[in-house]
């Protein structure tokens, strides 16, 4: 045990008490912050919100990490899993001065303390959980499960960083957190920082016990030894004893981390040492009310949120709150003006060593631009549209290979992918890097190495969380994923989008690299997998987020994919979703055409139309590579069989361009929209996803009811590519029939054409059952004039 003097223990305890006092004040008080007069009902907030139970434990850890920083000069990032413990963390950001530097109206005096209390969980203030508003934070905490994976993402490629991650015992019951323990299998002590998990067992969730808190120390040690950790315990309820324990164990954990790193960085074989984990057992609501009317509060679930309710109305409870706050002896913590006493303030680190001022927690300060290759040199050469075939993602793989090569010195780019890099035709990256693993590597393994920069693990949660932590600490990355299974992280992307939206309103938060998704193996081409892998719902999740944040791109071919991905990797503070197939497919645009098309977001493909500079009778719209194929083929069929029908084809690459400009920054002007889609012509629109999205986006456009949308209708199975579009009534024949039906002056000729199309669909159904493949005229179709 470390030999701290009694004075050192007293000062650490006093600093902790100051933070606890501020935490209680944030939950309860709107006035009289220093208790200079007896508490009265008007001093109490009208609505009592916030979480007390976890706050004293989080604050206890914070003050001890401060001591470690002061003694070692370490850069420590504080990642707080129990996000509703914000009162305890906000208190520390205020005590060490950062909060007042960022928010000058929250001054280091009685007036500022009053403002600190009044703003917490009130209109126009800050939320009850950690958020982008709080300096030093990269982790929202409003939804449990992601703290540890964010911590590892922050540590990757940051060799000088120690991430202290506080995992609540309620959070430890979630699936993503349980998967996150495996992250040490990817943490390289030579090039990465370290993560110190601190599992805080205070016993209870909202109304019941937690699983891990009821396990014995022996079982906990066995569990985490199995995960690969070396367990260090701190437990008790006597502050003086627990302070000494925590100081000694924290120093020991740091010593072991440095030994592992120093051994590896001196060129020795990579160690098999276990990384340390601290398991801290303290009472729920520690230092709070012990009981009320004989019912225990401290060390029970009753201290989880607001331990004493109704204090504004009940004089006895009001007196109990006053006694609780006075038990911290604020007169021995703050001077008469409300400023923390100098001998206590000296316990906090200074400048950027403060955890609330650490540059890693404001990653835009550290962001270095990616060196990107000239994407045009990876172009697919075309002699004519709709003739050449290529695998769009395979060309992108070559581009990404060179992104890795150009950024070898900065090492600030990684792929995070659920074991699908090769499957998604991005294997060119393995010419210059490998898959990462710190476990045993066998001779038969392929492209596996300790220093690999492709992070493959069969957990979408880990890929997403690692990438988020990596981005928020100032780096760049890409998340390629099967489209159907990226929905596993729906709530994670929602939380990240909310973080970005909040950060946009904070001038001190510097822009970070965008969260980039490449969704392939998509809904329309699941030849090996079938119905379970057919789901385009991620678009629905993302499209509803704040327009300042989200972008959705559906490049129809390889050249547009290259152009848009280059744009996404250069962008900042967005969530970019790019959806592109990996199968061989027809290519439509030369690179110059693709660049122009991407810049506009949507454009008319005049070569596919049949208008002769006249106004169209009908418009075929499309968004997505397979819908584009079917729409172009429908235009071709109409040219052959209904040449007098004037058809325009419009391809939409940037989905949000359909929206009015008032609703999204990428929205088309009314003038451009009307130029493409006219004011009156019927529009048959083939869409990659669920049809409702298009109807929502065009709301507010002229006569939106004229848009007839075909898309995914939850019809699927293991079948041929063309049968997928037939099952969902988005085939070229369905589109062509609908186009003819929507033009009144074509009705006399419609019956024969519709009979032809229906006959082709019957022929298709019979052929695939007999031959297990698509009709040659479908499979081998190419555009001809």
From TrEMBL:
Keyword terms: Lyase, Thiamine pyrophosphate
EC number: 4.1.2.-
Residues passing through the membrane, by range: none
Residue intervals of the Xylulose 5-phosphate/Fructose 6-phosphate phosphoketolase N-terminal domain: 5-365
Top-level lineage group: Bacteria
Cofactor: thiamine diphosphate
Ranges where the Xylulose 5-phosphate/Fructose 6-phosphate phosphoketolase C-terminal domain occurs: 582-783
Keyword flag Lyase: yes
Signal peptide start and end residues: none
First-level EC class: lyase
PROSITE patterns noted in UniProt: PHOSPHOKETOLASE_1 (PS60002), PHOSPHOKETOLASE_2 (PS60003)
Family: Belongs to the XFP family.
Name of the protein described by the UniProt record: Probable phosphoketolase
Organism (species): Mucilaginibacter aquariorum
């Amino acid at each position: 045990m470390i030999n701290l003097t009694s004075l050192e223990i007293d000062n650490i305890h006093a600093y902790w008490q100051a933070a606890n006092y501020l935490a209680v004040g944030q939950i309860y008080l709107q006035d009289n912050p220093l208790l200079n007069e007896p508490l009265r009902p008007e001093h109490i907030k009208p609505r009592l919100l916030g979480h007390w139970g976890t706050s004293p434990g989080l604050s206890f850890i914070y003050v001890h990490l401060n001591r470690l920083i002061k003694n070692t000069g370490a850069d420590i990032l504080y990642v707080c899993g129990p996000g509703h413990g914000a009162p305890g963390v906000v208190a520390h950001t205020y005590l060490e001065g950062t909060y007042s530097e960022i928010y000058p109206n929250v001054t280091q005096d009685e007036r500022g303390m009053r403002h600190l209390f009044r703003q917490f969980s009130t209109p126009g203030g800050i939320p009850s959980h950690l958020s982008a508003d709080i300096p030093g934070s990269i982790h929202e905490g409003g939804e449990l499960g992601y703290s540890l994976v964010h911590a590892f993402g922050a540590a990757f490629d940051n060799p000088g960083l120690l991430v202290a991650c506080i995992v609540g015992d309620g959070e430890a019951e979630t699936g993503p957190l349980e998967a996150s323990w495996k992250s040490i299998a990817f943490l390289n002590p030579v090039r990465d920082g370290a993560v110190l998990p601190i599992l805080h067992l205070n016993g209870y969730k909202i109304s019941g016990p937690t699983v891990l808190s009821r396990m014995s120390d022996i079982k906990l040690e066995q569990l985490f030894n199995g995960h690969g950790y070396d367990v260090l315990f701190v437990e008790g309820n006597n502050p003086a004893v627990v302070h000494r324990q925590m100081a000694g164990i924290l120093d020991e954990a740091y010593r072991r981390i440095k030994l592992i790193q120093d051994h590896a960085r001196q060129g020795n074989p990579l160690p098999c040492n276990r990384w340390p984990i601290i398991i801290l057992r303290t009472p729920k609501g520690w230092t709070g009310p012990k009981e009320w009317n004989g019912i225990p509060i401290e060390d029970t679930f009753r201290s989880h949120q607001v331990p004493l309710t109704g204090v504004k109305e009940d004089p006895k409870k009001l007196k109990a709150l006053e006694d609780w706050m006075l038990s911290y002896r604020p007169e021995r913590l703050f001077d008469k003006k409300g400023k923390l006493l100098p001998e206590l303030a000296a316990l906090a680190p200074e400048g950027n060593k403060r955890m609330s001022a650490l540059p890693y927690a404001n990653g835009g300060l550290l962001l270095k631009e990616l060196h990107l290759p000239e994407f045009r040199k990876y172009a697919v050469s075309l002699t004519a549209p709709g003739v050449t075939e290529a695998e769009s993602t395979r060309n992108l793989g070559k581009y990404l290979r060179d992104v890795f090569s150009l950024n070898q010195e900065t090492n600030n780019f990684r792929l995070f992918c659920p074991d699908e890099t090769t499957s998604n035709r991005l294997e060119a990256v393995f010419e210059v890097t490998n898959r990462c693993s710190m476990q045993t590597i066998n001779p038969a393994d392929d492209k596996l190495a300790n220093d690999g920069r492709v992070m493959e693990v069969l957990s979408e949660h880990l890929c997403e969380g690692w990438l988020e932590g990596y981005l928020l600490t100032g780096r760049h990355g890409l998340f390629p994923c099967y489209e159907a299974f990226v929905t596993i992280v729906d709530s994670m992307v929602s939380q990240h989008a909310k973080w970005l939206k909040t950060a946009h309103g904070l001038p001190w938060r510097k822009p970070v690299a965008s969260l980039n998704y490449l969704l392939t193996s998509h809904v329309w081409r699941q030849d090996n997998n079938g119905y379970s892998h057919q789901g385009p719902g991620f678009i629905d999740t993302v499209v509803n987020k704040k327009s300042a944040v989200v972008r959705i791109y559906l490049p129809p071919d390889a050249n547009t994919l290259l152009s848009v991905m280059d744009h996404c990797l250069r962008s900042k503070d967005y969530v970019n979703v790019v959806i592109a197939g990996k199968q061989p497919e027809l290519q439509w645009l030369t690179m110059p055409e693709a660049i122009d098309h991407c810049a506009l977001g949507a454009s008319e493909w005049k070569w596919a139309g049949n208008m002769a500079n006249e106004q169209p009778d009908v418009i075929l719209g499309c968004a997505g590579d397979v819908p584009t194929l079917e729409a172009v083929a429908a235009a071709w069929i109409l040219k052959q069989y209904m040449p007098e029908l004037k058809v325009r084809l419009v391809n939409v690459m940037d989905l949000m361009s359909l929206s009015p400009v008032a609703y999204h920054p990428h929205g088309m002007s009314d003038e451009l929209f009307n130029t493409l889609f006219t004011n009156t012509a019927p529009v048959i629109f083939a869409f990659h996803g669920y049809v409702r999205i298009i109807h929502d986006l065009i709301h507010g456009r002229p006569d939106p009811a004229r848009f007839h949308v075909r898309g995914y209708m939850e019809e699927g199975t293991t079948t041929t590519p063309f049968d997928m579009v037939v099952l969902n009534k988005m085939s070229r024949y369905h589109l062509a029939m609908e186009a003819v039906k929507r033009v009144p002056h074509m009705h006399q000729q419609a019956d024969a054409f519709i009979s032809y199309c229906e006959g082709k669909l019957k022929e298709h159904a019979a052929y695939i059952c007999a031959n297990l493949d698509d009709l040659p005229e479908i499979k081998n179709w190419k555009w001809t004039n």
